[in-house]
Specification:
It is a single chain. The chain has 342 residues and is mainly α. The protein folds into three domains: 28-103, Dna Ligase, domain 1; 110-189, no CATH class; 192-303, no CATH class. It has helices at residues 3-31, 50-58, 66-76, 95-103, 120-128, 135-143, 145-150, 175-189, 192-200, 205-218, 225-238, 245-252, 262-265, 289-296, 322-339; strands at residues 40-44, 85-89, 109-114, 165-170, 305-308, 316-319. Strand 5 (305-308) and strand 6 (316-319) form a beta hairpin. The longest helix is centred in the first third of the chain and has 29 residues, at 3-31. It is elongated, with a radius of gyration of 31 Å.
Amino acid sequence: MTTKKRTIIIIIAALLAICAVATLIVVNMFNHKLSPKETTYIYIDADDDIDSVRTKIIATDADVSMTAFNWLVAWKHYNEHIRVGRYEVSANKSTLSLFRDLRNHNSQPIRLVVPSVRTIDIMAGRLARQLMIDSITIAAKFHDPSTWQSLGHTQETFPALFIPNTYEIYWETSVDKLVERLQKENDAFWNDQRTALASQIGLTKNEVVTLASIVDSETANDGEKARIAGLYMNRLHRGILLQSDPTVIFAVGDFSIRRVLNVHLQTPSPYNTYRVAGLPPGPIRIPSIAGIDAVLHYEQNDYIYMCAKEDFSGTHNFAVSYSEHLANARRYINALNQRGIK
């Protein structure tokens, strides 16, 4: 073999070795595991550009090769196709798989908690903390008459749409899709069994939710909710005013009230059950599933009266007669006075 041929072979071998090493380096850059300390997520919203995407990737503290990422951005023109979403950064991911998730919109869903809260505006704020949509957009949708009407509600009954639970949904879901999902969950909740139970106790679904909102406002103790529901059903059946303090507080619009006074009882409002017979025109809060089911399975009892226990345990003393109720009320009032609660 001539010296020239030997030199050519050596050069070719060297080039192949260099190419092999370079390929290995590149492959490692693309496929090296990210190895974050814990699984985290990158949230890409509508305002993000390629620079802010890079910043969010770097902020994860994962072992992402930004050189490889930038090559992929240039090759696939990702800067022109940024997709909103929630993207997982975990130990089994690589720079290449993360890039593919971002480019192919492999967004990961969240577990959306729909809470039991007092008002629609509070609900909007709580949902906005978990979603890409801001609270102003959500609140505007919830207060839009066309939203209520399209779902068969009035402004007063609209809170009955919400069934507090945890739902899997995409972080970037639009406000319209959010409302559609809430209605879908409401439909699923009101299955044949619950609908039949509502009919059996003589209430519409909205009336069940309205009564449940009163029950939930009276107690946080799930164990006595069915008893309280039975008490109020007794009053409804006998044509007795419900006389529920939480409805008065709702009518006044001051949720800081700790002691309902005679001046509050005079508030003119369809929600003031000390003045208006029957159920209010809609829920006074978004009730829990436990509250709704307590109404559907209300306890058969003879109670007409109840009063908070004087030990401030959050539970109640129940009474059949007015004289018994007055004795319970005196103990509670004395306890309020002793604590200086006005």
